[in-house]
Amino acid sequence: MSHIVQIQTQVRDATAVDAACSRLGLPPPVQRTAKLFSSTATGLTVQLPEWTYPVVFDVATGDVKFDNYNGRWGQQQELDRFLQAYACEKAKIEARKKGHTVSEQTLADGSIKLTIQVAGGAA
Amino acid sequence: MKIIEVTVSPKGETRIETKGFAGGECRRASRSMEAALGVRASEQLTTEFYQQSSVRQSLKEGQA
After folding, report:
1. Bridge-partner residues for B38, per DSSP?
2. Beta carbon pairs, A and B, within 8 Å
3. If you count DSSP H runs as helices and E runs as strands, how many of each does chain B have, helices first?
């Protein structure tokens, strides 16, 4: 190995959001203005399992808006699971755009490892 | 073989690791993936990075 980078995931790709919903068996995302208890937010909305209000992603800025009332109106774990699926799908889309080969493996701790073999040995 | 490993934790945090690249080439290889996934929280250069850089440096010095 020669280089390790930690990334804080930002949701900025509508195609990858759609792929993440499909991967998790969620309804497809919808671009709309959604009610979040006492406020509203406009963006790409995703309805997570058992969540009262949808999560709203502004893919132009990477902002995420939701109101789960500290877990009472939706478990954080569901949002985490969505972000994991999004990051995997986004990484696969980017790798394939460059012609790289991708294989996927689920690890014992629940992490998902993507091994990207660089096409022709070049980045 | 040049490999980029992307590991996504159950909380959605991502770690990108490059393998088999020489020196700074690994940074160029992972840059587009980093930008696509979000913002960089930290970076760690491994022993191999420095070893490969110093081999190159030794070669240059030998040629001079």
Report:
1. A9
2. 156
3. 2, 3
Q: Could you report the per-residue pLDDT of A32-87, keeping only the tens digit for each?
A: 999 999 999 999 999 999 999 999 999 999 999 999 999 999 999 999 999 999 99
Euclidean distance between CA atoms A60 and A13, whole angstroms: 8
Q: Which of B7, B11, B14 sits opposite A80 (nearest CB)?
A: B11
Distance from CA of A118 to the nearest CA of B (A): 6
Amino acid A1 reads: M
Q: Is A2 in Cβ contact with B46 (below 8 Å)? A: yes
A118 and B26 within 8 Å at the Cβ level: the answer is no
pTM of the predicted structure, to 2 decimals? 0.88
Contact B2 A117 (CB under 8 A): yes
Q: Are strands B3-8 and A101-106 parallel, antiparallel or unpaired?
A: unpaired
Residues 6+ apart with CB under 8 A from A71: none
B21 contacts A83? CB cut-off 8 A: no
Rounded distance between C-alpha atoms, residue A89 and residue B38, angstroms? 13
